[in-house]
Design brief:
2 domains; DNA polymerase, domain 1; TIM Barrel; 14 strands; two-stranded parallel ribbon
Length: 346
């Protein structure tokens, strides 16, 4: 059977044309039922004829992954453990705030990049998520927490490197943004990358989404130690790619900079960061390191974070300090991982 959550509305149109005797608007009706009315079966789609509902049920699957576990933080953050059909698991995080709620979505089981500070990287790489498995995380969250008012923002900052799974990522973005379905605003959608430079241009296919780049260091030796991807795409290559990237007007890259005590949190590092970002339309998101029990890494003091913030702001950079959310349930940045996952071939 065909997984309906893997299909764009146009792809569904084409499949229905091949089946024959379906009006073109039936695909619109199906999207409305599945993504807006949360129908669990074709039998629920009462504005479609019974005979066509039966034909649809014989060809398309509406099965979603299951929520194997749910943890709630003292700050209201909720971490979902999603069990996929092959038994693999990924984590998805819902982060409610006063005027918005952000869903942090995974794109891989494990990750190839092996960033030193990231628990997902310690898992190794198992497999990519399919289009439907990415879409399903948003569908499940919308059904659990409520529609757009309770999932306003979607960020691809969960398990895995999104641009390493670019085909399925882009297909999922198209489905999520369909105005007859979830209608997720591209301006409230962000893809984060560790810096896979050759894949950056794929994001031109969705030009209004946000792009975040995990930088974390101002020198190649330190960044290479923290993030092995830097040995392939060093800072000069990555930053030149950002300078030449045709961002839409009034859009900026988000530069993610995790602060580690004694490694990259000194005033001189702030000055170096300002120099590196010259000529790049960027805002900086400072992220105090979330403790993972990894040797050689520790969180900076609040005073160090504030001093770094002020050093950037004084030099004209737009800068924000990300609030620590969900750390008590291992749902904060760099803490996502699933237990007992075996590494597969790459």
């Amino acid at each position: 059977m065909l997984d309906l959550f893997s299909l764009s509305r146009e792809e569904l149109h084409r499949h229905l044309d091949e089946l024959g005797d379906f009006h073109r608007y039936v695909a619109d009706q199906v999207f409305d039922w599945v993504y807006r009315k949360h129908a669990n079966s074709f039998a629920d789609m009462t504005n479609i004829s019974l005979s066509n509902r039966n034909r649809l049920a014989a060809v398309f699957s509406l099965e979603l992954p299951s929520v194997a576990d749910l943890q709630t933080s003292i700050d209201g953050t909720v971490k979902l453990l999603i069990e996929l059909q092959d038994g693999r698991k990924v984590e998805t995080v819902h982060i409610p705030e006063l005027h918005r709620a952000t869903l942090c979505v995974s794109t891989q089981v494990g990750c190839k990049l092996g960033c030193r500070f990231c628990r997902t990287g310690k898992m190794g790489f198992v497999r990519h998520l399919g289009t439907s498995e990415i879409v399903a995380q948003v569908v499940l969250a919308r059904r659990m927490f409520g529609d757009k008012e309770n999932v306003t923002n979607v960020v691809f900052m969960g398990m895995g490197e999104p641009l390493d799974n670019d085909d399925h990522l882009l297909a999922a973005l198209a489905i999520l943004g369909d105005d007859r379905g979830l209608a997720q605003s591209p301006r409230r959608t962000t893809v984060s990358t560790a810096g896979l430079v050759p894949k950056l241009d794929r994001l031109l296919e969705r030009p209004t989404i946000g792009i975040a780049v995990s930088l974390n260091a101002t020198r190649d030796d330190l960044r290479g130690w923290l993030m092995p991807v830097n040995r392939t795409y060093p800072l000069a290559v990555l930053l030149e790619a950002l300078r030449s990237f045709p961002l839409p007007k009034r859009r900026r890259f988000t530069i993610e900079y995790i602060l580690f005590a004694g490694l990259n949190d000194e005033p001189k590092h702030a000055r170096e960061l300002v120099t590196l970002l010259h000529g790049i339309p960027a805002k900086v998101n400072l992220i105090p390191y979330n403790e993972n029990g990894i040797e050689g890494l520790s969180a900076p003091t609040e005073d160090r974070v504030q001093a770094f913030f002020e050093a950037l702001a004084e030099r004209g950079l737009q800068v924000n300090v990300r609030k620590r959310r969900g750390a008590d349930i291992a749902a904060a940045c760099g803490q996502l991982a699933t237990v007992g996952t075996k590494t597969a071939g790459r």
